Amino acid sequence: MSIKTTNRCLYKSDFKSFMESDSYSVLGRIHDAFHGQALTTTDEAWMGEIQLLQKVLFPWKDEEAEIIFEYDIPRLGKRIDVVLLLRGIIFCLEFKVGQKDALQSDVEQVMDYALDLKNFHRFSHDRIIVPILIPTKHLSSSSLFVPSVYDDSIYNPLITGGSGLQGIINDVLQHANANQPGTIKDWAISPYTPTPTIIEAARSLYENHSVEDITRHEADKVTTDATIAYILDVINLSKKNGKKSICFVTGVPGAGKTLVGLDVAVKQSYTEEGAFNEDDGAVYLSGNGPLVAVLTEALARDNYKKSREKGDDKKISDSRREVSKFIQIIHRYRDNMLAKIKNPVIDGKLEIDPEKAVKLQQSGYGEVEHVAIFDEAQRAWTHKRIADYLKRGGTYGNKLKVANFPMSEAAFLIWSLDQREDWATIVCLIGGGQEINTGEAGISEWISALNERFPHWNVYISDKLNEPEYAEGKVNELLEHNPNVVFSDRLHLGVSLRSFRAERLSAFVHSLLSFNTNVSELYQNVASHGYPIVLTRSIDKARMWLRQQARGTQQTGILISKVSARFKPLAVHVLPQNEDNAVHWFLEDKTDVRSSNYLEEAATEIQVQGLEVDFACVLWDADMRCDNNQWTFWKFNGKTQWTPEKNIETQKYMLNAYRVLLTRARQGMVICVPEGNECTTPEGFPEDPTRLPIFYDSTYKYFKSLGITEI
Fold first, then answer.
1. Do the Cβ atoms of 629 and 515 come closer than 8 Å?
2. Share in percent of the chain as helix, strand, coil (round to 5)
3. pTM exceeds 0.85
4. Pairing outcome for strands 665-672 and 613-619
5. Which of 54, 87, 664, 690 lies at a CB distance of 3.0 to 4.6 Å from 178, suitable for a disulfide?
6. What are phi and psi of 622, to 5 degrees?
7. How many CA atoms lie within 13 A of 296 on its CB side?
8. What is the distance between the alpha carbons of residues 522 and 467, in angstroms, rounded to a whole number?
């Protein structure tokens, strides 16, 4: 009997064992492997699929074939209902249990699964893939078997009801002349490997990108080119000498760290002649979900538009797929490596489980890319946060559970690249003072991991990392006894004289939040060079100012901290924490009510970090108040009152949240500190005790004392 689960699926078995098992036993195994709480409807769907397939697959019961339930496509965050590996053919089955009609969106969904396997799944690259949609009550079956226009080894999606599934599988086998029994060895634990064709498309996307419109940088091109050249030199040196290296790149807000990361990924993936470099590829990774979603969608829309203009018959989903090779969520990269380890962890030591991973000649048990570029590396999680997260199985307990996880996220990411047999380079792009979530470790965790666990790695580091906003100014101290460190000013993204605004704005914001004596001087310096910063107590005046400033397609938006709570009286809605919402907020035009330009929904520091608008309103709540030249921090209980926030770490994150918000505008900003509600009830009590003027007045007076122009 061969019935297994892997971290990539909920159930895997040969046909014979599956069909000889009691259907409730199969469901129980799926339940055991499922990390969350299955809904009743989910159970019913699984049971319907199990019972149907135990009948459908009977003609091939004794063949060497495999069935896999709920298969996760590596690093894409997509799951296929059922995969059949029969006579060397991959059948992707998408069930719609109880459904009668075949919807276009369902057909596109199963086709996308087939394309994702073809493009990103190593052991599917050269196989026939057959996507089948099964609305179980559908009354007819497809009779036309033709290869898709996308690739001649992917069939156009087939549609059948439950009663016709056996016949359609048999017809496909005959049409494909698949007469030799056999499954596909190690298919379920196949490495993630993008095909050259998809990377060619990604390169084309980048070369024609309009992503600069949303991550427009202020750095001098000479500066960015020098930084990119330095990183590529480190990569080449690592390859030549068979070494592992890490680069830490700093830059002021708006200096183009994201674009540098994307540019390095492109240049590293191609030879000087323009050919795809199959052996030395790179991937850009970020833990910032909204940033990845917005960048991906911006590139995809741009590619789709250009393709349609050229007369290409292309879907937006194809463009999104191409971008997904190029830009990915760091958590999926991490989860794919977690799927390879021995679980439970014994004696605090991570080890690869050879039953769960395929060892390749160069990458070993690591991922396919030699180079991993981590944007906003300061946001990597502390050991406690990731250990707690993995112990409970994710935020909602529905992911892989790993007890006693022994590393911080930074250490685990280095460990992941260290699994390569040959060489590797990590590029960490770092924003100063931008740890904005509890459990974000900052740069010190990366350095500690290198010192304690990976002393054989070479460290190339920006000479600006010794400044106070990075690791509390202790970087030199932390690296004092590491013999493999090289400091370089070429790893810092500065700005040119003609566009020095970003650096001056960053200095002004730092002084503003630190109550430095030079803050008024810095304000005048910024304001006198064409970057207006104004102050108001009226959200209506703030909206009017933004609309007066913006011209053409320039973008406006309201920004708030995620801890803020009392903006409903100002007719400001908090943008829900969903990546699709961030995409619409950033990318829709002024005719769409979901756009930031409508000035109705306010985005938080979580949604805007790494991105920018042209003109912003930073709407200040009572969560951070000025009191005698120091900040006090407060949290709202969701009902009746604000209470002091005592946790020092949380206070730091709250301060950094406003640092992020104050550096998101490219062209200018208005700071709005509400007046609060001074009205009383007939009995003499405050009408709204959660918005008393005293909560806001001292903050407003501080800003006013700096000479900030009031509107």
1. yes
2. 40, 20, 40
3. no
4. parallel
5. 87
6. -85, 10
7. 27
8. 19
